[in-house]
Amino acid sequence: MTVDAPAVAQLPYGVGRFSRRWVTLVVGLLVVVGIGLFAYITQLRDGFAVTGMRDIGPMGGADWALYIAFDVFFVGLSFAGITIAVLIRLAHVERMRPVARMAELLTVVSLIVAAMVVMADVGRPLQGIVNLFKYARPQSPFFGTFTLVVSGYLFASVVYLYLDGRRDAATCARVPGRLQRFHRIWAAGYRDTPSERSRHNRTAIWLAVAILPLLITAHSTLGFVFGLQVGRPGWNSALQAPAFIVLAGASGTGMLLVIAAVLRRTLPSGDQLDEGVFKWLGRALAILVVVYLYFMVVDLLTTIYSGEENEHAFTDAILGGQYAWIFWLSVATLLGTLAALSFKWAGKRVGIGWYVAAGLLVQIAAVGKRFLIVVPSQTEGTLLPYEPGSYSPSWVEISIIVGLIALATLLYAVFVRVFPIMEIEEESPAKAASAPQPDESPSLRERDHRVTVVAIVMVIVGFTLQVVSYLALAAPLGISATADDSNPRIPFAPVIFIFGVILVFLAAVVYELLPARLAARHSARHAVT
Amino acid sequence: MTRYGMVIDLDRCNGCRACMEACKVENATPRGSYWMYVFRFEQGKYPNTKINFLPRPCQHCENAPCVKVCPVGARYKREDGLVATDADRCIGCRYCEVACPYGVNSFNWKEPSESYYLDWDDPAVKKVTNGVVPPYRNPDLDRLYGPERRLIAGGGHHKGVVDKCTFCVQRVEDDRNPACVQTCPMEVIHFGDLEDPESVVSQLVRSRPNFRLLEDSGTDPGVYYLGGQEPGERSHQIEAPEAEVG
Q: What is the pLDDT of residues A162-187, one digit of tens each?
């Protein structure tokens, strides 16, 4: 294998250095994850009676509560990650390059815990997994959450993170050590040749283009889970989906500010994250918060002004009832976010502390607003004269959520130590130019061309599988009075849909990896002959 | 085509809640879950108040929000109009409960066998039963129903699944009336085919002014109420049945 770039003596950004402080952090997080696991086992054993949730109506409870609120929150966090990665590709926001991988990792990690928290909310998790694959119905807004968000979006983000990291993996793989093997597997034969680079740039752009609509659809489906329901005052609103996306962007950007600040502090040469990065993120956050506040005002005005009786009663409960403190806390933290950001702009050089404050405040607002979307519509939103209800989370729910947050932090902390969280600086252009040009014989180019065709076919087949399984193989759309319509037309049709989604994004991996594989085989054959 | 439905004569109802009791016995529902629920509610402002009663079974909607949202087709519409829940397929996501504007669903928060009113292992109970009387369970509940052969009758099947009123499918398929209809001492509740113009229910609907609950939400419910008064925003419940998870 030819290695063009210079050998690196040490892995960059603290990769491979497991300091005592880091180990303490990991052990601490593991303990918290353990407590969460214990809480989950308790819930599995004793049933959901150990949670604070109860039936809507007769029991005056909420059927969806902390778990769903945090599911929406976690999926929201994931939004900023891929969006920023995509923006760098499509809008050439070069300044944001140092946070690109941080953002991609945030997406992957938060989607993993989002999937886990949904499983924590399902009464029968085992049947849940099997039956969703076997019977999932496109008609249910859950179909989108389950196929697009969890499988499609997560898979696409992993592919993006993986392909974008190959160059750095190849650089790291040159450093001997315990992690060398891992980096070599990740690099998968990447040699940083110009053709490989242009190939990667092309896939990155196409992935970005493909992910963007997926991003909007996935986050909207989550909004639709609530927005399509007529039976719950406060839910049935066309603003639900767009508001979900905006708040998702705000909380994700805020979290990225916090992560960037922490890494700047703790990583060797972390000061590559200059203030410009924070300024950019801060500006994005401010815009998103303002847009969200605007949505909130419009929504409130509509219900207060013209509100139908039930919507009115519900709004009163939010503004002045038992949930009022959460509402006003959310409003205060949203305004606080703006205040913290404007302090920064007042021109005083006060360090990045204000950005971190803004990033943390917006998290409180996001959790508060997610809670307000999920819970009050159930306890205060009964349309028949049931007793007014209430909900407060039990220790089991809180432990599971805290455990999942710890798990997310743990995944992040581990990743930072096994892979460079920031892109490794480009080598000097002179060196890159002097690197030996790879063999670009016509036969090789023809083979590359064939790989492109394979990738395109994969994308087409993937989309076709999605459309066919959605419309013709899964359970039919609409309500009909035949029991058979509750079954998919062929069993496991949802799996075909998911396979289609995965195939589309797998095409990117094939497009990038296959030429190197073929080239390796080609040169091996040449060596023999 | 058949569409089973109910007609509930509110002018006759005295709020005795015998239907709730009958439903519990017939369907073995766990503590705190009421498939039939009788509102005793007060309407108006003092001194112009009036007490009303309103029995509330599942409305077996034609355009059922719960059927639409069920992610796995555990909640489905049968050809005879019944909205059924397959206890074996349900994954316990509770989306149906959240989507239903009537609040008719109940989740099995605990192992059903552990959440009945009587603890059969309690020494005081054992003294009476001598430890030989088993907890009663209607054997019809564990059979499969409909041409689709699914587990849709009665409650208490699994922990972590959603149950609701089935219109007593085990009795209906046997040409008997649901338990609440059978028990009501005032003959308030009538059951039959709403699509058959000669059926008692169709004749009752034609004969008197009636309403259906929350018709605005477009659910097209299969339960008609005669006389009485539809609860409004200003109604509030008195003497709500105790609904705790045992």
A: 988 888 888 888 888 888 888 888 88
Q: Are residues A58 and B79, on separate chains, in Cβ contact within 8 Å?
A: no
Instruction: Tell if the CB–CB gap between A383 and B110 is shorter than 8 Å.
Output: no
Residue A479 to residue B93, Cβ atoms within 8 A = no
Q: What distance in Å separates the CA atoms of residue A292 and residue A105, rounded to the nearest whole number?
A: 25
Give the separation between CA A226 and CA A205, rounded to whole angstroms: 33
pLDDT in tens, A211-237: 888 888 877 888 888 888 888 888 877
Q: Is B89 part of a structural domain of the chain? A: yes
Residue B21 belongs to what H/E stretch?
helix B18-27
Give the one of B1, B39, B64 whose C-beta lies nearest to A384's C-beta: B39
A343 within a domain of the structure (yes/no): yes
Q: What does DSSP assign to residue B208?
A: S
Residues of A in contact with B151 (CB under 8 A): none
Chain A environment of B81 (Cβ under 8 Å): 481
Chain B contact for A189 (CB, 8 A cutoff)? no
- Answer whether residue A359 is part of any domain: yes
More confident residue, B119 or A407: A407
Confidence (pLDDT) at A300: 87
Is residue A266 domain-resident? yes
Contact A177, A515 (CB under 8 A): no
Sites in chain B below the pLDDT cut of 50: none
A143 — pLDDT class (breaks 50, 70, 90): confident
Instruction: For residue B239, give how far its alpha carbon lies from the nearest alpha carbon of chain A (Å).
Output: 10
DSSP H/E element including A78: helix A66-91
CB of B143 within 8 Å of any CB in chain A? no
What's residue A529's pLDDT? 57
**Tokens 């208490």 found at:** B156
Mean pLDDT along residues A55-70: 93
- A221 touching B (Cβ < 8 Å): no
Q: Which two tokens stand for residue A167?
A: 């160059």
**Closest CA of chain A from B129, distance in Å:** 27
Q: Which residues of B touch A480 (CB under 8 A)?
A: 77
pLDDT higher than threshold 70 for residue A528: no
Interface test with B, best of A63, A118, A147, A380 (most B CBs within 10 A): A63
A477 to chain B: closest CA residue:
B68
Structure confidence by residue, pLDDT tens digits, A36-48? 999 999 999 999 9
Residue B163, domain CATH: 3.30.70.20
A484 Cβ contact list (under 8 Å, min separation 6)? B148
CB nearest to A48's CB, from B41, B107, B235: B107
CA-to-CA dists, residue B64 to A83, B28, B67, B211, angstroms: 37, 25, 5, 18
Residue A149's pLDDT band (boundaries 50, 70, 90)?
Answer: confident
| Structural domain range at position B126 | 4-231
Structural domain includes residue A306: yes
Q: Which of these, A498, A522, A519, lies nearest to A153 by C-alpha position?
A: A498
Nearest CA in chain B to A314: B233
Q: What's the rounded Cα separation, in Å, for the pair B71 and B102?
A: 20
* ipTM at complex level: 0.92
* Chain A interface disruption, residue of B91, B215, B234, most A CBs within 10 A: B91
Q: Determine, yes or no, domain membership for B122.
A: yes
pTM summary value: 0.91
Q: How many domains does chain A have?
A: 1
Interface membership of A94 toward B (CB under 8 Å) = no
Give the domain extent around A368: 261-374
Residue B139's closest CA among B22, B20, B28, B35? B28
| Cβ neighbours of residue B196 closer than 8 Å, sequence gap 6 or more | B2, B202
pLDDT at A476: 81
